[in-house]
């Protein structure tokens, strides 16, 4: 059987930085060549970054991408890399591929290019365009209905793009008809909790359907709300994993493959079981099979546990948001509580302690133990720590405007937000907000107070998971080192400390109970009756629904934060602010 040394480049492009992304392709192709790779595959929309969203609506952007893929092919050859085949994602011009689908019209295409010896020898346009969850690809792209089969080194190779694996039929059916020996699927697949094994099982099923080895390469890094976790792999037609890359780490995985010799020359159209026909095309590069070589095992990276994968995602998202938006430091309010303690720890792990500025902002109601816990965390982690008492500032406001109850409590939060934003303006820090998903869901945040900031690392993390992540992170220390988070911050009952003796439990149920209702209502869209039928207390259900529905206007004004759940507040969940729909009470049974 012909052999192929394949490299999967699990890398971190930046949206809009076409020149920088092309440099990444050249650099990592050079790494792949140094390891003897015959071919290297890069992620979906590698040259433009992903998702590029409405940039794709600009002709100038699309033209730059389409031109760059051709100049990149020439550059690779000029730099001595022309004999390494490169598969790379980009955005192509409208009209490059014939027969636009009527529902999508003539738009650009989310494409893959096969580069070799200075030329773009084949192009493929994504066939299945996702239009659910975080994706709006029918807004941007036309889908392709051609599958080029590239014969290289005695092997027939097909290219597909991301969603082409997630839907039945389409290019996988066509690849089987064309007897491809290898399907290379390039991806921009965002992270969600538990998604890694779902992807692997799906790829195993599609490899069997194609009767071909399937290589899956995914990008890493953060892009606004989305996090890409890598987890690139190769599986055989029988479902055997041959290689698997680490999560959240940039690099290449190299795998030696023995693949069926190319023999079929069929072309023409095939019904691909999704209501369309795909045209099979053949491109023969005329390259002979490589001389036999001793194959090396690529290895399977260990998969992280539930808390480890979420924590890794939050660190990657925070690091990339700060780095890609060209901030050098961050600042956050450190209350001594668990939420700000976790955010500070994530920031230190992402950026280093010298780039993290923590500020204690005690009011007249702040407890001594909270101040002590904040100072202790700053000492343990080496943050640049500042104490700014706010009691006199709040008193100055109260002399001019009479406020009571909740308004007075919120004033304290707004004074803190103003000070943090002032420090941001003065020193160029990015302000990190510290609210969790449970608080955002129920409206337990103050507009222009604790919601003020530029990035929200735990925005999609339920409160009950906040505690589990803190305990997990503390458990990672070795050699007798101090855990980064003081145990007292984990143990103490949560409180905003905006009035004497205040506790979250005064107005909210136990967070484990609350989070179960929130998950069902927000992420699974269960209505009132279904929530009660699932065993939740009717009075609690009614209260939670009222709180969630009434806080939509607040969430719209909250900073972006990384998506880790199946449905985050942001790209996933889009409800009108002005909305009189209310979940009906159960109807009487006849």
Write up what this structure looks like.
- With 590 residues, the chain is of the alpha/beta class.
- The chain folds into 2 domains: 3-289, Carbon-nitrogen hydrolase (Nitrilase/N-carbamoyl-D-aminoacid amidohydrolase, 4-Layer Sandwich); 306-556, Rossmann fold (3-Layer(aba) Sandwich).
- The protein has 17 helices and 21 strands.
- The radius of gyration is 27 Å and the shape is elongated.
| Named CATH architecture of the largest domain | 4-Layer Sandwich
Helix and strand composition category = alpha/beta
Count of folded domains: 2
Strands ordered across the widest β-sheet: 15-16-6-7-8-9-12-13-17
Question: What is the CA-based Rg, rounded?
Answer: 27 Å
Strand coverage percent: 15-25%
Look at the structure and name the CATH superfamily of the largest domain.
Answer: Carbon-nitrogen hydrolase
Give me the CATH fold name of the largest domain: Nitrilase/N-carbamoyl-D-aminoacid amidohydrolase
CATH class of the largest domain: Alpha Beta
Q: Termini separation (Å)?
A: 70 Å
Q: How much helicity do the residues have?
A: 25-40%
| Unreliable residue stretches | 586-590
Basic shape:
elongated
Keywords:
9-stranded mixed β-sheet; 590 residues; alpha/beta; elongated; disordered C terminus; 21 strands; 6-stranded mixed β-sheet; 19% strand; Rossmann fold; 35% helix; Nitrilase/N-carbamoyl-D-aminoacid amidohydrolase
Short characterization:
This protein has 590 residues and is an alpha/beta fold. The protein has helices at residues 18-34, 59-78, 137-140, 171-177, 195-210, 306-324, 338-351, 368-381, 391-400, 405-427, 437-442, 463-475, 487-491, 511-523, 528-533, 538-550, 552-556, and strands at residues 3-10, 39-41, 85-92, 109-116, 119-125, 146-152, 155-161, 182-187, 213-218, 220-223, 226-229, 233-235, 241-244, 251-258, 268-271, 277-284, 299-300, 330-333, 356-360, 384-387, 430-431.
């Amino acid at each position: 059987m012909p052999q192929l040394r394949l490299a999967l480049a699990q890398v971190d492009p930046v949206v809009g930085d076409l020149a920088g992304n092309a440099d990444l392709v050249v650099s990592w192709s050079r790494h792949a060549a140094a390891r003897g790779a015959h071919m290297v595959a890069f992620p979906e929309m590698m040259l433009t970054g992903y998702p590029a969203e409405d940039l794709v609506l600009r002709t100038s952007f699309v033209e730059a991408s389409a031109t760059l893929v051709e100049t990149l092919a020439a550059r690779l050859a000029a730099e001595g890399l022309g004999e390494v085949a490169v598969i790379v994602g980009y955005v192509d011009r409208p009209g490059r591929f014939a027969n636009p689908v009527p529902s999508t019209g003539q738009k650009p295409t989310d494409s893959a290019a096969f580069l070799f010896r200075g030329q773009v020898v084949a192009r493929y346009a994504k066939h299945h365009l996702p239009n659910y969850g975080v994706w709006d690809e029918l807004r941007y792209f036309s889908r392709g209905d051609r599958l080029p089969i590239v014969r290289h080194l005695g092997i027939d190779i097909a290219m597909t793009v991301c969603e082409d694996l997630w839907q039945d039929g389409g290019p996988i059916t066509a690849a089987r008809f064309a007897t491809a020996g290898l399907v290379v699927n390039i991806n921009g697949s965002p992270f969600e909790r538990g998604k890694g094994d779902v992807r692997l099982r799906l790829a195993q099923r599609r490899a069997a359907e194609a009767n071909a080895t399937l290589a899956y390469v995914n990008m890493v890094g953060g892009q606004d709300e989305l996090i890409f976790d890598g987890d690139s792999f190769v599986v055989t037609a029988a479902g055997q994993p041959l290689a698997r890359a680490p999560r959240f780490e940039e690099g290449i995985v190299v795998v030696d493959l023995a693949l069926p010799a190319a023999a079929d020359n069929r072309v023409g159209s095939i019904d691909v079981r999704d209501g369309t026909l795909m045209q099979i095309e053949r491109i023969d590069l005329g390259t002979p099979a490589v001389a036999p070589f001793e194959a090396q095992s690529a290895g399977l990276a260990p998969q992280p546990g539930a808390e480890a994968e979420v924590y890794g995602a939050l660190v990657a998202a925070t690091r990339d948001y700060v780095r890609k938006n060209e901030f050098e430091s961050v600042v956050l309010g450190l209350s001594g509580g668990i939420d700000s303690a976790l955010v500070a720890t994530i920031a230190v792990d992402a950026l280093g302690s010298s780039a993290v500025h923590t500020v204690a902002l005690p009011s007249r109601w702040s407890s001594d133990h909270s101040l002590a816990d904040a100072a202790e965390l700053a000492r343990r982690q080496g943050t640049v720590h500042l104490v700014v008492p706010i009691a006199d500032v709040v008193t100055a406001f109260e002399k001019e405007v009479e406020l009571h109850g909740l308004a007075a409590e919120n004033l304290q939060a707004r004074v803190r937000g103003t000070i943090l934003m002032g420090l941001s303006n003065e020193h160029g820090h990015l302000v990190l907000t510290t609210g969790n998903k449970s608080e955002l869901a129920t409206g337990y945040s103050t507009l222009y107070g604790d919601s003020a900031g530029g990035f929200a690392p735990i925005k999609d993390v339920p409160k009950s998971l906040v505690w589990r992540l803190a305990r997990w992170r503390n458990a990672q220390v070795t050699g007798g080192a101090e855990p980064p988070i003081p145990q007292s911050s984990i143990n103490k009952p949560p409180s905003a400390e905006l009035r004497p003796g205040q506790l979250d439990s005064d107005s909210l149920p136990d967070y484990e109970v609350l989070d179960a209702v929130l998950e069902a209502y927000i992420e699974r869209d269960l209505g009132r009756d279904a929530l009660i039928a699932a065993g939740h207390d009717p009075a609690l259900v009614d209260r939670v629904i009222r709180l969630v529905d009434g806080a939509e206007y607040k969430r719209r004004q909250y900073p972006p934060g990384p998506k880790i759940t199946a449905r985050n507040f942001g790209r996933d969940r889009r409800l009108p602010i002005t909305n009189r729909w209310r979940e009906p009470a159960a109807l009487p049974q006849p």
